[in-house]
Request: fold
Amino acid sequence: SFRLSQRDMWESAKRVTGTVDADWSITHESTRQRWEDSHEAMAKGNFATFPKMLYSRMFFPTAPGDYQPQHHDVLDLPAEDLDEYTAIAIRMGENNEIVQSH
Reply:
């Protein structure tokens, strides 16, 4: 339901966790490098890197994963709260609720 940049997600995560940049160890990596590293790991059988590959591909300059609904209003879809869903995702990650199939 959201059309976001990495910055949007980052800012939401900080709001939900009550943190600031100084609370994190911030590194930078190109989207292409993240995708290539995870693609290589998957080719070697490490399927746990699939989410990294999937989400890094989303941010390629061509935006191949941009499926933002063009008719949100026409379909009368409800507006959703990004921070609410960020909090759910963080909780799931912290509680190992994310299932990885191999």
User: Anything to note?
Assistant: The radius of gyration is 16 Å. The mean pLDDT is 84. Residues 13 and 86 are 6 Å apart (CA to CA).
